UniProtKB/TrEMBL annotation:
UniProt keyword annotations, A-Z: DNA-binding, Transcription, Transcription regulation
Protein's recorded name: GntR family transcriptional regulator
Residue ranges, annotated region (Disordered): 1-40
Superkingdom classification of source: Bacteria
CDD domains: WHTH_GntR
The keyword Cytoplasm appears for this protein: no
Pfam family, any one: GntR
GO MF: DNA binding; DNA-binding transcription factor activity
InterPro entries: GntR_C, TF_FadR/GntR_C, Tscrpt_reg_HTH_GntR, WH-like_DNA-bd_sf, WH_DNA-bd_sf
Family annotation (PROSITE patterns): HTH_GNTR
UniProt domain HTH gntR-type: residue ranges: 35-102
Amino acid sequence: MDSAIDTAPSTLKAGEPADRSLPAASSAGPAGGVKRKAGDIRDRLEQEIATGTHPAGERLDEQVIAARFGVSRTPVREAINQLVAGGLVERIPNRGAFVRAMGLAELVEMFEVMAELEAMAGRLAARRIDAAGAKRLETALVACEAAADREAHDAYYYENERFHEAIYDACGNAFLAGEARRLHLRLKAFRRLQLRFPHRMRQSLAEHRRIVAAIEAGDGPGAEAELKGHILVQGERFADLVATLKP
């Protein structure tokens, strides 16, 4: 089964009007605006690839995408580069950028490895976290709570990223943190998608609270178990969501 689930044909047609639901660019200046637009486009394409709107093997045409979102090709090119870095898209010399085939079995395997890496990071963080690290972790938890209260799934995902980053930094093992970050990037689209499963965001938040409690208590085995379950359930929820997307 490909990562791009066959639920609908691509809607990226030449001459389409700009997608006006794209958030406004940052007012921080031209460079900041391009970066913001690229991130917004990446997020939209990322979700569409994960849900099968753009199936495996489809070519992503920069000009068509730029017309769709009403932007120049510069942020589109940057967005596609980010998708390439995340493993969702591959560039083929002299042909362009294409949605990469990724089977459900491969995704489940990556979630299993991710669970082990996060579990180890949590166990080490419980032994090594300092006052500054604990404060950063608590701040990230509060931000997750605020996003959950607003039912803001995408905002919650990005606060969730910061939450896990705090754990990676607190573990005191740069190699482990680097490997976790690389795999986190590969799974980003699917970790975002599973948060839209009914009640998953609230369940994730409850898991975050237990993780923080274990780390702050210096309970290495407890933090390890909580983080492992936290990631494995994401893989299960993703598989459930895929099943609901089948025609």
